[in-house]
Amino acid sequence: MMRFLVFLAVFCPIFFLFAYNSGYGYDAYEYLIIARTLNEGYNLYDFIPSKSYLLYSSTNVLLNLLGAIITLVFRS
């Protein structure tokens, strides 16, 4: 758990730096769809991205982490 908190302490400020004033809240559905398809093995440039690569990749990483946490919580 401590490693996860350290990861969040490092990752969140970086994500905030790139997401602040980027319209992330307005385009969240697009990011979610593209992040899910990245998780399924598609390439990012199979689409026409409207933001930087880091935004989609970080959404993909968070989606994988949250999915793993939710799976662990509800498995038991």
Features:
76 residues, mainly alpha, 0% strand, 3 helices, globular
Describe this structure as you would to a colleague:
This protein has helices at 2-19, 28-39, 53-75. It is mostly helical and 76 residues long. It has one domain. The longest helix has 23 residues, at 53-75. The protein is globular, with a radius of gyration of 13 Å. The protein is built from 3 helices and no strands. The protein starts with a helix and ends with a helix.
Oligomer state of the chains in this structure: single chain
Number of helices: 3
Q: Helix-strand pattern, N to C?
A: HHH
Mean pLDDT, all residues = 78
Strand content: under 5%
Low-confidence stretches: none
Largest sheet, in brief, is:
none
Identify the overall geometry: globular
Counting structural domains, the number is 1
DSSP helix fraction: 55-70%
Radius of gyration: 13 Å
